[in-house]
Design goal:
The chain is of the alpha+beta class and 159 residues long. It contains six helices and seven strands; from the N terminus they run H-E-H-E-E-H-E-E-E-E-H-H-H. Strand 5 and strand 6 form a beta hairpin. The longest helix has 29 residues.
Length: 159
Amino acid sequence: MHLIEHRLASGRPLLGICLGAQLIARLSGAKVAPMGYKEIGFGELALTEDGQNSVLAPLAGMSVLHWHGDRFDLPAGSRLLASTARCVQQAFTLGDAVLGLQFHLEADASQIERWLVGHCAELAQAGVDPRTVREDAQRHGAALARAARLVMADWLDRL
């Protein structure tokens, strides 16, 4: 948390994914709390107007990998970029250099088996069928990888 706090204070670029986004939100004064349920699996993002005009634009209408049970409030001065029906705060930007993503844009769908095996107890407890996640990874993986590269390239180009 000290590293994130230092990076935020520096004004330099910072990308937070899942727990990283939650920690950025918390260190920026926002509340982070359990949702009371897990959001695990592939699901479509709803981009806000700000999101449609952001680096996340390539994700419009795409399913991304969600794997979390906590949520964050938006930090003061941030802009909401994306939501889902199960978790309103999916992505935010704080200034020009900070991007927080609740979903796992970094996940390599071809490596999803590692996630499924490593988190089999969590999946079972949440009532998530690993076969569904596996099938969705095969269905969405290639398009998501292309979109993720565009998002990251655009974010870096804008810095």
